[in-house]
């Protein structure tokens, strides 16, 4: 028996006899939408999206094409007065798997995996002294480990408000004023409007002497405006400001991005499988009732 078809005008269940489930159709409807979801989600979540975005998005086209083929076969069976039910279910299941696989996979990429790949593919610098080094020397820095004695000058913190509050504080070495304050700790909505209210990252951790580079391009202009306000307010210069999240262990933070990305993937795939299982069970019961009514 073909998937979603019957001999003559029989249903997916054989009416007038003991009801017989179309086991092949049920298994295909259970497993193939999950395969589509996994393929689209993985293509848009991980390295393929980072190195070849156009190829990763082609997986969405393939998923939609598969849904279209299933819909065409359902319509063909209907015209031939054969049972279209499982083909119809498959078309809807493929469409759902493709759309939500793309949405969730893309979200996982932007929130977790892209920051991980960005930081992994740029340089790490040890023993950086903000009083000695300049920003233009470390333009390709992803992780920076500062010399002992480096800390935040909270007295020169500043914020810029644009819906969110963009908070900055200079990273300094010692108490002497710097010719150019090129290294800044940053954070969102973690400071007040007054000076000295900077509470971003591990600002109160005495063991924190490292920074993880800000990679969100859309945020950088607003942090730059906050730095410009600090320049005007404190009569200082920041010729080539670089922005970092202040912390003790950047490696642990990078691994957190990676771990979160894989955890999100496992949760999404398991949730989709459970949802599709319920849909297949519901469809089987509904089609069984339709067969009894024939």
Give the SSE map.
Elements: H1 23-45, H2 47-51, H3 53-79, H4 85-120, E1 123-128, E2 141-146, E3 150-152, E4 158-162, E5 164-173, E6 183-188, E7 210-213, H5 220-234, E8 242-247, H6 250-293
Parallel strand pairs: 1-2, 6-8
Antiparallel strand pairs: 2-7, 3-5, 4-5, 5-6, 7-8
Helix pairs in contact: 1-3, 1-4, 1-6, 3-4, 4-6
Written overview of the protein:
- The chain is α+β, with helices and mostly antiparallel strands and 294 residues long.
- Helix content is 51%, strand content 16%.
- Strands 1, 2, 3, 4, 5, 6, 7 and 8 form an eight-stranded mixed β-sheet that branches.
- Strand 4 and strand 5 form a beta hairpin.
- Helix 1 packs antiparallel against helix 3.
- The protein is elongated and about 85 Å long.
């Amino acid at each position: 028996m073909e998937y979603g078809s019957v001999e003559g005008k029989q249903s997916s269940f054989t009416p007038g006899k003991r009801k017989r489930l179309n086991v092949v159709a049920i298994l295909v409807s259970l497993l193939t939408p999950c395969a589509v979801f996994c393929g689209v989600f993985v293509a848009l979540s991980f390295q393929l999206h980072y190195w070849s975005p156009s190829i990763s998005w082609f997986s969405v086209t393939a998923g939609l094409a598969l849904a279209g083929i299933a819909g065409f076969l359902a319509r063909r069976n209907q015209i031939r007065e054969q049972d279209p039910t499982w083909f119809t279910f498959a078309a809807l299941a493929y469409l759902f798997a493709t759309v939500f696989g793309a949405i969730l996979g893309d979200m996982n990429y932007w929130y977790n995996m892209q920051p991980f790949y960005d930081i992994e593919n740029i340089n790490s610098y040890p023993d950086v002294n903000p009083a000695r080094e300049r920003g233009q020397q470390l333009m390709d820095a992803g992780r920076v480990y500062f010399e002992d004695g480096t800390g935040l000058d909270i007295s020169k913190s500043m914020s810029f408000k644009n819906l969110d509050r963009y908070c900055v504080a200079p990273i300094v070495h010692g108490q002497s004023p710097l010719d150019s304050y090129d290294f800044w700790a940053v954070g969102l909505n973690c400071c007040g409007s007054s000076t000295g209210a900077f509470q971003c990252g591990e600002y109160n951790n005495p063991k924190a002497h490292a920074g993880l580079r800000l990679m969100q391009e859309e945020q950088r202009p607003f942090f730059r405006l906050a730095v410009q306000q600090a320049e005007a307010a404190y009569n200082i210069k920041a010729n080539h400001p670089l922005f970092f999240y202040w912390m003790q262990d950047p490696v642990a933070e990078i691994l957190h991005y990676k771990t979160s990305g894989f955890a999100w993937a496992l949760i999404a795939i398991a949730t989709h499988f459970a949802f599709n299982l319920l849909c297949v069970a519901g469809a089987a019961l509904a089609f069984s009732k339709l067969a009894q009514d024939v």
